[in-house]
């Protein structure tokens, strides 16, 4: 060991001593949380809250969209079935009625029968759409946000606009 200095041991004979901090790492010098940590916590909580609201709205609206799709499908099926499968039957019915009635009366009766069938299918489709519900859980949850975010304006209220300090006032 020529030319080498012996190593000094500044941290004791076994190396650095691990320590447990005796104060909160997020706290400032007075023991209160720092503004930066409060903003970071608030930002992450608002972000989590927003993601939860979006997930709830998506779940509720997906259910209602499936009902709307079923109602639309029923209306479309009713229209297509009425058009294709009944065409020959109603021609046959008009020809059959022409045995006892004049042609105009026979096909007038067939027309009224077609019209009543179409109105019935449209009414059933309307009833399916009428049973749809608003996303109540989402609306309730969003309305309760005003208690979580106290500086936000009330829902439906017009925001109060303060004049900009660097822009001249606009005459009304």
Describe the protein in words:
With 172 residues, this protein is mainly alpha-helical. The chain has a domain at 52-134. The chain is 59% helix and 0% strand. Helix 1 (35-84) runs antiparallel to helix 4.
Secondary-structure topology with pairs:
Elements: H1 35-84, H2 87-97, H3 103-130, H4 136-143, H5 145-148
Helix pairs in contact: 1-3, 1-4, 2-3
Q: For this entry, what is the oligomeric state of its chains?
A: single chain
Overall helicity: 55-70%
**SSE succession:** HHHHH
Give the overall shape: elongated
Q: Counting H and I runs of at least 4 residues, what is the number of helices?
A: 5
Mean pLDDT: 78
Q: Taking Cα atoms only, what radius of gyration do you get, to the nearest Å?
A: 38 Å
Cα end-to-end separation = 91 Å
Q: Which structural category do the helix and sheet elements fall into? A: mainly alpha
Proportion of beta-strand residues:
under 5%
Largest sheet: none
Low-confidence stretches: none
Give me the count of strands: 0
Q: What's this entry about, in short?
A:
The protein has 172 residues and is an all-alpha fold. It has a domain at 52-134.
Looking at this protein, list some descriptive labels.
172 residues; mainly alpha; 5 helices; elongated
């Amino acid at each position: 060991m020529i030319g080498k200095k012996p190593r000094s041991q500044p941290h004791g004979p076994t190396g650095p001593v691990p320590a447990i901090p005796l104060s909160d790492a997020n706290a400032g010098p007075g023991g209160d949380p720092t503004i930066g940590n409060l903003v970071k916590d608030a930002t992450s909580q608002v972000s989590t809250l927003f993601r939860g609201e979006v997930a709830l709205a998506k779940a509720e609206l997906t259910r209602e969209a499936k009902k709307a799709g079923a109602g639309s499908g029923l209306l479309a099926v009713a229209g297509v079935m009425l058009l294709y499968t009944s065409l020959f039957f109603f021609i046959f019915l008009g020809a059959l009625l022409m045995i006892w009635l004049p042609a105009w009366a026979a096909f007038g009766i067939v027309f009224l029968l077609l019209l009543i069938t179409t109105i019935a299918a449209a009414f059933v489709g309307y009833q399916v759409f009428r049973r749809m519900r608003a996303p109540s859980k989402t609306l309730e949850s969003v309305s309760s946000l005003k208690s979580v975010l106290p500086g936000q304006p009330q829902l439906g209220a017009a925001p109060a606009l303060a004049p900009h300090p660097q822009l001249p006032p606009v005459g009304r």
